[in-house]
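name: query_chain
kind: protein
chains: 1
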Amino acid sequence: MSGEDPTPRKSAEPSGVDLARVALRAAKEAARARGDATRQRKQARRGGLRSGARADGRDPMALGAAINRLLTERGWEAPAAVGGVMGRWPQIVGADVAKHCVPERYDEDERVLTVRCDSTAWATNLRLLAPTLVARLNEDLGHGRVQLIKVLGPGGPARRYGPLRAPGSTGPGDTYG
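structure:
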């Protein structure tokens, strides 16, 4: 034996097949890079992405997301939040107060919530609770959304017109109101 190793040695240089694979991989990566750059230029010229496999601003969205987007775009967040408070009035003030006092309207400019009570006793009670309610409402809606609660008592009785009504008179309102 002459000292030669019977196992064949692999040469350090790649063979023809290996060279072809490396060249093919490099060509694919270069083509992909050129294609991405070309696609980006075309999209920029066309005015952005087109609808297709990728999501964009024109795709359908959930109803809740569409409503939130509309509220934000139109600046209706505060009125919508106050409307939600009017719907949750019993949870905010309690069931007992909610039976006798109901919110009527909210003035966005003056930040005043108007509440009507069914008796003068409840109106007085709500006037005493107003600072606490304003704090609760602002905690729920955000600071400063409600600055004042205007409490109204019950409306007067319906005006009845009898047979002894004077022409041009508005009834008892002429004297008392």
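note: The chain has a mean pLDDT of 76.
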